[in-house]
Amino acid sequence: xxxxxxxxxxxxxxxxxxxxxxxxxxxxxxxxxxxxxxxxxxxxxxxxxxxxxxxxxxxxxxxxxxxxxxxxxxxxxxxxxxxxxxxxxxxxxxxxxxxxxxxxxxxxxxxxxxxxxxx
Amino acid sequence: xxxxxxxxxxxxxxxxxxxxxxxxxxxxxxxxxxxxxxxxxxxxxxxxxxxxxxxxxxxxxxxxxxxxxxxxxxxxxxxxxxxxxxxxxxxxxxxxxxxxxxxxxxxxxxxxxxxxxxx
DNA sequence: TATTCTGGTTACTATTGGGTAACTACAAAT
DNA sequence: ATTTGTAGTTACCCAATAGTAACCAGAATA
Lengths: 119, 119
Fold this sequence. Notes:
The structure is a homodimer of 119-residue chains. Chain A is mainly α and 119 residues long. Chain A is 52% helix and 12% strand. Chain A has one domain (4-104): Winged helix-like DNA-binding domain superfamily/Winged helix DNA-binding domain (Arc Repressor Mutant, subunit A, Orthogonal Bundle). Chain A has a 3-stranded antiparallel beta sheet with strand order 1-3-2. In chain A, strand 2 (67-72) and strand 3 (78-83) form a beta hairpin. Chain A binds a DNA duplex (30 and 30 nucleotides) through helix 4 and helix 5.
């Protein structure tokens, strides 16, 4: 899932891309944002992601220090995820990607006017 | 290569990630930077990329309006790539990713002090 | 005449990613 | 006694991605 050749590169930029350069991670980070959120909520909000993949991505994000995982020893289990300082520091970058896209994306006729979740 | 579910999302952020959210594209955009560069040069500079994949990525970047391809009708052929306005506008985002990584990456002992290519 | 040069393309194969469904623990509610 | 709820994990399988090597044009060079 993470490409070792990227993560072990001696170019720090390449390593950064190795960490966050896939399609799910920016989406997940963006969904979490500044709040604390449970596994099931992320799963419900992010379209098309399977629990298996979500688990994997969350685990990697935690390993890479982008988010913190807080498991309450209850039954049924409850787990909350929130961004670490490093993860929070990444949010402005996602904002600038949004602005960039807004400015330069070729206009297309949207099927619905529903711009939900990532507003 | 591009995920249709992402590119056809009605969330503009998701679409943006569908466009540039993979490991090769940020690297390629970063390597091109503000210069005009030939196919062979990119291939030589970017580590581990195969010509096949490079071709595919460049084609998609062109389709998405991030770069311009200028083919000289010579023999042997010469093709130059350079970023479009949209592509150039993405460079500052890559810079902020570099800064973010520099600030937050967990320190690791580099095998070599060679930080070539993406400095 | 053979080789080199460039920017690819193609066919074939290996690797990986990702989807699905079943399963877990255990308590509370029905 | 059975269902519900949560946050996963596991096994199995298929589709997508990426790597490799061979091949192309056609002029210039040796």
